[in-house]
Prior knowledge:
By secondary structure, this protein is an alpha+beta fold. The chain has 4 helices and 8 strands; from the N terminus they run H-E-H-E-E-E-E-E-E-E-H-H. It is elongated, with a radius of gyration of 21 Å.
Amino acid sequence: MQLRPSLLAVFFTLAISVASADAEHVVWSGLVIAENVPQPAPIPPELTTLEQTLKDLFGYNQFEVIGQSNKTLKTGEEDWLANSKYFGLHVDARGENDAGYTLNLKLYKENDVLLETDANLSKSSPLVIKGPQVGSGQLLLVLVVKDDEQAHRRRHADPANPITAGWHRLRRIIHDVLP
């Protein structure tokens, strides 16, 4: 009977590690130039799900990604940079909450800080911030927590996590042995 508390402790530890591994999210950050042109280019693949929303909100017919970054958030406290030739977006994740992530955003033009703000990035909807005028267009800062389908494809493209696979095997064995 002393084995049972030890097994429960092992199961609890493995369950927590598996749950935290599944809690990772990928955030796409983009610097986007929006403008009106006579012959708009096709929307970049990163923005296809946002196309109509961007057109309705900002009134532009063409969107070009000039800088981007994908970051996997494991702790919710990472930081990263999306760069273009002239602009840089520094994202400092300050923690995860029920709705998403608390972020500190800094927009740079070369070495000058143009914007610094705190924002909340929802797991269910994108964050779009209107930046400065650039030529005949507008700079947009776009951050999106990628949906579960994309994360699912990414997880299955990578080799299986040995801890997760071991946990599933151990769970099946115990289920077969214990009534």
